[in-house]
């Protein structure tokens, strides 16, 4: 009887230890802001120069009424600080604080139907976004007609 009691106690302790270890390994995934809600690409993203691959800006994506907007919040290079190539109300305006992504709505696993502005040349394109790698990367695609160009942005923690 004592041997069976010791064996049952040992199994119970082993099961409890396993459950605790499992909980501790899952805890970072549940508490990390990058992984806690990967259903929407809201938050801050590091962008890269499409020609050189060098870090370019930090864009903060926000959601209001089911629509995404991306605004430059930080410049990461020594390039232009204003949108000299832009037209209309964005012409010669500071890049920091400028919305370069707007009007995207959820469409299945991606966000689409919006517009993206490339301040380097002042041109806009149709935009779509798709989260990758558990929400740590964002595939950003701009398209016009039959032409499209994708870039991967990295989440800023």
Low-confidence stretches: 9-38
Helix content: 10-25%
Query: What is the terminal-to-terminal distance?
Result: 56 Å
Amount of beta strand: 35-45%
Quaternary structure: single chain
Derived from helix and strand composition plus strand pairing, the structural class reads alpha+beta
How much is the radius of gyration in Å? Answer: 23 Å
The total count of strands amounts to: 8
Overall pLDDT level: 83
Strand order of the largest sheet: 1-2-3-4-5-6-7-8
Count the helices. How many?
A: 2
- Principal-axis shape equals globular
Structure commentary:
By secondary structure, the protein is α+β, with helices and mostly antiparallel strands. It is 22% helix and 45% strand. An 8-stranded antiparallel β-barrel has the order 1-2-3-4-5-6-7-8.
């Amino acid at each position: 009887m004592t041997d069976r009691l010791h064996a049952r106690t040992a199994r119970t302790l082993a099961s409890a230890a396993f459950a605790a270890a499992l909980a501790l390994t899952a805890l970072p995934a549940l508490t990390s802001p990058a992984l806690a809600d990967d259903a929407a690409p809201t938050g801050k993203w590091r962008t890269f120069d499409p020609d050189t691959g060098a870090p370019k800006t930090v864009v903060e994506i926000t959601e209001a009424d089911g629509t995404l907007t991306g605004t430059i919040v930080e410049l990461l290079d020594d390039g232009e600080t204003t949108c000299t190539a832009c037209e209309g109300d964005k012409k010669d305006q500071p890049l920091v604080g400028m919305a370069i992504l707007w009007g995207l709505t959820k469409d299945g696993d991606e966000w689409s139907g919006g517009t993206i502005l490339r301040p380097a040349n002042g041109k806009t394109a149709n935009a779509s976004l798709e989260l990758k790698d558990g929400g740590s990367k964002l595939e950003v695609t701009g398209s016009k007609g039959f032409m499209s160009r994708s870039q991967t942005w990295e989440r800023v923690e």
